[in-house]
Amino acid sequence: MTDPSRRKFLHSAAAGATAAGIASTSVKASTYRRILGASDRIRMGVIGTGGMGTGHVNAFCDLKSKSKVEYDLVALADVCQPRLDNALNAARVKQESVQVDGYRRYHDLLARDDVDCVLIATPEHQHHINAMDAIRAGKDVYLEKPMTLRVEHAFQLREVVKNSDRVFCVGTQKMALSKFRDARRLIAEGEIGKPIWSQTSYCRNSNTGEWNYYGLDPKWKPGENVDWNEWLGWLGPREWDPKLYARWRRYREFSTGIVGDLLVHQMTPVMFALDSAWPVRVTGHGFHHIDKEMENHDQVNMTVQFEDGHTMIVAGSTCNEIGLETMIRGHEGTIYLNGSNCKIQPERLYVDDHEPIDIPARPVQDQNMLRMDWMEAVSERREPFSSVELGTKVVVAVDLATKSMWSGKAWAFDPKTQKARPV
């Protein structure tokens, strides 16, 4: 991690986040499973080598080739041998001098004492199990979003993280964008007064059905080169279904669909900017307008109310691409976050008290920046941009909205008991 400009950005961003009220994680380098010297390279594994996992493999190898990160990718694991072979080939070709081993059981990867950290890109229903196993094995963890499928899983994982000294990151890439860090600081400084309500969305269109672009490989043979029961985990057993295996985001038992896969990209950084309290009342509405074969809805709308009364309105669609402008409305001004910059326009009644603000964005590739921040956090033993606490709050909103859509009722959450109930 030798790029001076990148290090300067990361350090200033981390300092700004701390100043805005993020509590840093207490970790002790002396308890690090493999004691690293100043010249030692971080050794990393990837669990889950489907589309996203293989994308991470290629991205990290490319960053390494550009001397953006100092690490070696040494181990991959997946229940599917064809997927594993494909990712292994990519990692080996791009790291000619590094031995990269493959495992069908991720526990075998975690058993290696020389693996310092793991990136987990498995389906949502397995996130909490894979991550808790990794932390208990002494690994630092980058876990793909959403953090977990269900709210109870989020609190189980949160407890394990907080009782460890591991560096844990939720892979919500827009958390690396500077505009949300700027918005958080400006809100904390009182530039918009009390934040009243916010809005955001993730909308796109499809004429073939969302997530149907994940192909079905005729080479997949359960019991031979695919461990179907291991993939199903706590949601098994059931008959082999290649559509479920490849397109699990379309199925309500395995995914929250638009809400967990798309909307978390937008909700998470807005909640970060707000330094949000816990969601306490959530309503959601979903419908099948076009893609009637998909179990999860192709149009969703949700409202999240937080402990302090702030209300967030969120829209998601895979049948129309025009969404809501991302903004945070305060009593004295409004923050506009749809573009690259962070902009504030004072309310008419407060133009004598506040000036308009337009903070230019620091240009970054957000997903790479989040990856690099995690790797740097592993080296420096600090909390990354995207924390377990925020990830848990997001899952509360996501899971309760989904429950509301299917039950037709509003759902309440009690932060003290960590319990949700229909109201």
Spell out the key features of this protein.
423 residues, alpha/beta, Rossmann fold, Dihydrodipicolinate Reductase, domain 2, 2 domains, ten-stranded mixed sheet, six-stranded parallel sheet, 12 helices, 34% helix, 20% strand, globular, disordered N terminus
Question: Can you tell me about this structure?
Answer:
The protein has a 10-stranded mixed beta sheet, with helices on one face. Strands 3-2-1-4-5-6 form a 6-stranded parallel beta sheet, sandwiched between helices. It is globular and about 65 Å long. With 423 residues, the chain is of the alpha/beta class. The chain has helices at 4-19, 51-65, 81-94, 106-110, 127-136, 151-162, 178-188, 228-232, 242-246, 258-274, 366-380, 388-407, and strands spanning 42-47, 71-77, 101-103, 117-120, 140-144, 168-171, 195-203, 279-287, 299-306, 311-317, 327-330, 333-336, 342-346, 357-359, 411-414, 419-422. Helix 5 (127-136) packs parallel to helix 6 and helix 10 packs across helix 12. Helices cover 34% and strands 20% of the residues. It is built from 12 helices and 16 strands. The N and C termini lie far apart (50 Å). Strand 15 (411-414) and strand 16 form a beta hairpin. The chain folds into 2 domains: 4-171 and 371-387, NAD(P)-binding Rossmann-like Domain (Rossmann fold), CATH 3.40.50.720; 176-209 and 254-364 and 393-422, Dihydrodipicolinate Reductase, domain 2. Residues 1-32 have low confidence and may be disordered.
